[in-house]
């Protein structure tokens, strides 16, 4: 049996950013798969800002992570040996593999990859990322045709899908991202109607310029000052879906709350958070729908594929420095 | 025709509390009612925190108030002379009379008072106050039996009705108010299950003690630090109705936003603002329902009746110092 390298959690990054010392590299001899088990070789890992929240354990909506645990994360693996009737050698699966090169599983929670798209799509546009965009937009924010939809973190893996889905739904879509490069991509490639570069300053004024009738729907991935600016420009009856708060993850503590929450009263607005796992039963159907949009040419996606298992911690940190272009992946 | 004293707006209290100089007393000779008009003598004025917002003109959800305008406010008047087919001398009406002793009206927006309760009920439990409690609770927050409902500003005119309606709906109800006196009234008279005195400190811990399973429904009248503490203790699927922000009115500027808004994500919560006027078409039916609850003995209410037209500005200021006990009224 192979020896597997593993990244173990070695620190809780509470009140601060992720540091190299939060992980430690270990080696483990993998045991042979028993009856009903499969041996999996990790091919790709997927990265998500929520992983910092898991490391922090500040909330209890997922099982806590303890020091010494294999770092939790989703990945794509190949079945190398199967003693499980549901899997055969050569099958590709997507699951919460963790940061390990090899592992043995009883198949619980694994999804066999069966898509006409490249398999990495199961970590990006068809993965939690894409499904989060779909559920947050269509189950929480519920835009109607003609709405002006404003997306923060718009060039990110989730945000770019949100904007394109809103376009398919007949909305006008404006995205907020950091830097000219990302903004150009939003308009030229992802089909956004307009992009706001928050690094160019005065986000509130830029929102007003691009959304003169007010913002009907907000899909927020960042929180902090940008959420506050967005709430300042909502239209009557606005719906706000809170998906993430990368500004929270960056600082490692809670940023100031949005003062403009009181606009929810003046504008009769509704702001809701969600956890995409609540719709897990619908994921297969939602994936089919997203796959169809990609095949029709109405939905494009980007993947940022780094290389080498040893680079897993550095790859996670890319999310918090805004370096990634599209869904952050690592090929082993 | 009589000469009428009137309080005119003389300053916009933006970024500060209300000051005496924000009003100026004037006199005006009232013209005789023309065809289709009525002459009204004001008997009572009703006071509401929203009046400071009107004076500030920081939002545009009601028509702006200009310097020199008669101060806007609701009141109860007696018809002294009528040249309108819909009104007779001696009728009592409720309407947006403004801070004036006498005025002439064409009847627009006036509601004839027809209740088995004392007429002042039309400014309190059957007025905008009671209807706001009803709509915010049953149309926005939508509690179900068994929910734990937490109300801030609970001893106020709106808050005390909210808690009692939630009890009628089978909920467990906890109120937050300032001082032992108000807290005792909540439990002994208004039927709250428990009361939290924010002046006794550590509101968050007190909420946790009284709502050990988390808070399912929040009805917020105050905003600021108390809203933040309440959001820190929400249960999964919590619904938060934002009714007011008296802490905003007090300071005259926007207080810090609630950092704990991100709990909306962890707990899949929904926070919504509302303007009760959106349900104006239903007010008569809602008033009948509230009146029935009072007559059944299931809903009690308090009125704090000050005396004398010259005291109108001082009476408004009572709302922001927490002096009022129940709905703040002024008898002329």
Quaternary arrangement of the chains shown? homodimer
Q: How many domains make up the 3D coordinates of chain A?
A: 2
Globular, elongated, flat, extended or rod-shaped: what is the shape of chain A? globular
Low-confidence stretches of chain A: none
Q: What is the C-level CATH assignment of the largest domain in chain A? A: Alpha Beta
What is the CATH homologous superfamily assignment of the largest domain in chain A? Medium-chain alcohol dehydrogenases, catalytic domain
What does this structure look like?
2 copies of one chain form a homodimer. By secondary structure, chain A is an alpha/beta fold. The first copy, chain A, folds into 2 domains: 152 residues, Alpha-Beta Complex (Quinone Oxidoreductase, Chain A, domain 1); 150 residues, NAD(P)-binding Rossmann-like Domain (Rossmann fold). Chain A is 27% helix and 26% strand. Chain A contains 10 helices and 15 strands. In chain A, strands 3, 4, 5, 6, 7, 14 and 15 form a 7-stranded mixed beta sheet that branches. A 6-stranded parallel beta sheet of chain A has the order 10-9-8-11-12-13, sandwiched between helices. Chain A has a two-stranded antiparallel sheet with strand order 1-2. In chain A, strand 8, helix 3 and strand 9 form a beta-alpha-beta unit. In chain A, helix 2 crosses helix 3. The longest helix of chain A is centred in the middle third of the chain and has 14 residues. At the A-B interface, helix 8 and strand 13 of A face helix 8 and strand 13 of B. Strand 13 of chain A pairs antiparallel with strand 13 of chain B, so a sheet runs across the interface.
């Amino acid at each position: 049996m192979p020896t597997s390298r593993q990244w173990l959690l070695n620190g809780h990054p509470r009140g601060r950013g992720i540091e190299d010392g939060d992980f430690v590299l270990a080696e483990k001899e993998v045991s042979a798969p028993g009856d009903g088990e499969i041996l999996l070789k990790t091919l790709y890992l997927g990265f998500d800002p929520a992983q910092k929240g898991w490391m922090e354990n500040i909330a209890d909506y997922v099982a806590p992570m303890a020091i010494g645990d294999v770092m939790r994360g989703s990945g794509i693996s190949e079945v190398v040996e199967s003693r499980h009737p549901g899997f055969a050698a050569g099958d590709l699966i997507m699951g919460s593999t963790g940061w390990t090169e090899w592992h043995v599983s009883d198949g619980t929670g694994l999804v066999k990859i069966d898509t006409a798209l490249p398999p990495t799509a199961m970590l990006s546009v068809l993965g939690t990322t894409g499904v989060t965009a779909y559920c947050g937009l269509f189950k929480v924010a519920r835009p109607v045709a003609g709405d002006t939809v404003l997306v923060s973190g718009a060039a990110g893996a989730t945000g770019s899908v949100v904007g394109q889905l809103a376009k398919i739904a007949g909305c006008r879509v404006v995205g907020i991202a950091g830097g000219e490069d990302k903004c150009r991509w939003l308009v030229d490639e992802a089909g956004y109607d307009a992009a706001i570069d928050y690094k160019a300053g005065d986000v509130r004024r830029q929102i007003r310029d691009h959304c003169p009738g007010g913002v009907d729907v907000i899909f927020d991935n960042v929180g902090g000052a940008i959420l506050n600016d967005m709430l300042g420009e909502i239209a009557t009856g606005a719906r706000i879906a809170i998906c993430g708060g990368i500004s929270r993850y960056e600082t490692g503590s809670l940023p100031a709350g949005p003062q403009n929450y009181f606009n929810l009263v003046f504008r009769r607005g509704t702001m809701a958070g969600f956890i995409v796992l609540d719709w897990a039963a619908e994921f297969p159907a939602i994936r089919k729908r997203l796959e169809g949009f990609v095949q029709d040419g109405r939905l494009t996606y980007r993947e940022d594929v780094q290389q080498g298992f040893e680079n897993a911690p550095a790859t996670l940190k890319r999310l918090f420095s805004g370096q990634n272009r599209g869904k952050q992946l690592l090929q082993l």
